[in-house]
TrEMBL record:
<dbReference type="InterPro" id="IPR032701">
    <property type="entry name" value="Prok-E2_B_dom"/>
</dbReference>
<feature type="domain" description="Prokaryotic E2 family B">
    <location>
        <begin position="48"/>
        <end position="144"/>
    </location>
</feature>
<dbReference type="InterPro" id="IPR000594">
    <property type="entry name" value="ThiF_NAD_FAD-bd"/>
</dbReference>
<dbReference type="Pfam" id="PF00899">
    <property type="entry name" value="ThiF"/>
</dbReference>
<feature type="domain" description="THIF-type NAD/FAD binding fold">
    <location>
        <begin position="341"/>
        <end position="508"/>
    </location>
</feature>
<keyword id="KW-0548">Nucleotidyltransferase</keyword>
<dbReference type="InterPro" id="IPR016135">
    <property type="entry name" value="UBQ-conjugating_enzyme/RWD"/>
</dbReference>
<keyword id="KW-0808">Transferase</keyword>
<dbReference type="Pfam" id="PF14461">
    <property type="entry name" value="Prok-E2_B"/>
</dbReference>
<dbReference type="InterPro" id="IPR035985">
    <property type="entry name" value="Ubiquitin-activating_enz"/>
</dbReference>
<protein>
    <submittedName>
        <fullName>ThiF family adenylyltransferase</fullName>
    </submittedName>
</protein>
<dbReference type="InterPro" id="IPR045886">
    <property type="entry name" value="ThiF/MoeB/HesA"/>
</dbReference>
<dbReference type="InterPro" id="IPR029752">
    <property type="entry name" value="D-isomer_DH_CS1"/>
</dbReference>
<dbReference type="GO" id="GO:0016779">
    <property type="term" value="F:nucleotidyltransferase activity"/>
</dbReference>
Amino acid sequence: MPNALNHVKDCIDRLLAPYSPRRLSTTEIKSQSLEYNAGWLIESPVCYEGDTVFLHLLITPNFPYKIPDIRIASPEIKPLTFPHLESDGKLCVWPERYCVTIDNYSYIKELLSDAVNLLKDAIEGKLEDHFFDEFLSYWAYYCKSNHRINCLCNYENKVTRQVFVFQNKQNVQTFADDKNSLVKWLDNKSSLPSPNANKLRERALGSIQTSAIICFGKPWHPSQFPKTGKEFTKLIENEFPNETDEIMALLCQSMANQYSSAPIILVSFETKSGPCFGSIVFARGLFTRKNRKSVLDGFRNSIPIKDFKNRIKTIPVFGGMVNRVDQSWSMGRDFNRRWFDIKNETVAIIGCGSVGASIARLLVQSGVSNLQLFDNDILKAENVSRHVLGQRELYLNKAKALGDSLAIDFPFVTVDVYPNLWQDVEAKSSRYKHELEKADVILSCTGDWYSDQMLITLQSEYTLSPIVFAFVEAHALASHVIVNPVDSNAFNSIHYTHTNKVGKMRCPVTYWENDTTQRIPACAGEFQPYGVIPMTHLHAMASEVVLDLLLIGEEELMPYRKIWFDSGKVLQSLNGDWSIGWKESYGDPKLGKYQRTLYFDGKFWVDRHD
C-alpha cells in the first residue's frame, strides 16, 4: 500500500508541475479536519482583499474512488462570505454526481481550473443568486438550534397565519395548520396518551400552543440573517409594511407560550425550485417568572405593539432547520402529481394477508390517504415469510397490526380497521355495508369464494364501487387482477358458478397433474408453497390497477383483467405446464415473465387494440 500511495503522489506531482505546487508534510496533513492521505499547496491567480489565495488539493484514502477536495488554505474566509464555500474552507466545485475516469488523474487539472474560476466569479459577486437558489444549504450555517422541528403545514398556502405546535419530551416540535390534523399526526405516532387516560391526555392536549408562520417572498441573503429580535422585526416591517401590526400580534402571542423556553416561529420563502421552510428561534420567551405572564407586566389586558417590539429587540435569535413531513413532500417532494388527484379517495381492502397487506402499503406510499382494512385473522409465525408484518406482530389481528404499522410509518393517513368477520349477517345490513359505500374502490384479496360472492351481491344491491380481485394460481406462477364493475359479471365469468366445479377457474393459466397444496397436521390444514418474490408482481399489478381506477373513475369503465405469467422454466421444474385450454384460447406463454391485459365484452375475454 505505501508503494501504491507513493505512485499516486508521483503521478499527481507531475500533473501539478505547471502550478509549482508544494507537497504537504505529514504534520500539515494531520492538521486538516478530515483524514487525508496526501495534499499539495498551490498558489492561485486569485486575490481576496489584497491577499493571494492559496489552495490545498487533498486526497483521501478512498482515492481514486473519491474526487480530491479543494480547500482554501489562506487567507481565512468564513462560510457565507460567498456561495459554494463550506466549513474549513472547502470549495464545492463539482456536484457529488460528477463522474470522472478513475484510472486517469488528468481531470485534476480541470478540477483546479474550475475551482479558480469559481473563486473569481464568487469574489466578483457573480454568484450571489446562488444564495437564493440554494437557500437551505446556506441557512444551515446560520442554524444553532438543537430542536428537531417537524412541519405539517400546507406549503401551498402563502398567507402569514397562526399555526399550532406541540413539543414532546424529546424536544421535538411539530407544527400544523390546525389542531385536528396535529392531534391525528401525534396519535398515529403514539406521541399522545391514549384517550382512555383522560387526565394525562387532557394535560397533553392542553400543551398544544399557537405559533405563527410568516410567509416571505424572496429568500434572505446571508447578510440579512437576523441576530436579534430587532433585526427580525425589521425584516417583517420591510416585507409587510401594511401588515406589520397584525404579524407582530401573532408573534407576541407565540412569544407568550408558557410551555416553550425558546419560542420558535416558522418562516417560508419562495425559490426557483419551490418553497422552503426555516425557523427563527428566540433565545427566550416573554415568560420570565414561573406562573406569571410577564408580557402583561405593567399592562392590564394586553401590550401595545410598540412596547412589545422594545421588549424583544435585544433577545438573541438564530435559525433552525425544519423537516417537512407533510404528505405532499413525503409522497414525492411536491412533484407526485398523481397524489394530488387521489389524496382524498378511499380504498377498502378485504383481506390483509400476504396479498392485501403489501398492496395496502404500496397504495399509501403512492399517496392514498384513506384506507379501510377488513380481516378477522391473526398473524402466525408461518405467515411472516411473505407478509409485510413480522414476528413482532405475532398473534395480533392482521388488520389491526397492519393499520397500526401504517399509521406509525405514514402518520398523515387515516386507517379504519375492522377486525371481525366482515360477512356477518348483522354487519351486512348495517355497519360494514355503510363503510363499503364510502369506498371509491374495493379490493378483495381473500381468495375465498364465499367472501367474493357476498361482495359481488352487495355491490349489485347497493351499487358499490368497482371491486378489484387479486389472487394467484398454484406456486404463484400465474397472478390475476380482475376489475369487476357493478353487474359486469367479470369475476364470475372466469369461474364455474355451478356443478361440482364451483369456484374453480374455467381456463386456468397453469396445469398441474397432481395437487399442489401441502398438508399440515391439523384439521383442514393445507397451504400453497411459494415465496414472497413471485407475489411482488401481483402486488404491483393490483396497486397499479387500483390507482388507475381512482384516477379515471367509473364512467364507461370496461371490465378488464391483468395476468402475470411467471417463469416457464420454474413451472416445468415443478412438474407443471401452461394449460392446454389457455394456450388454445389465448396463446402459449412459453418462457413467461411478462404481463398481459384482456378485456371483457360481456361474453368473451379479448385483446383490445386502441
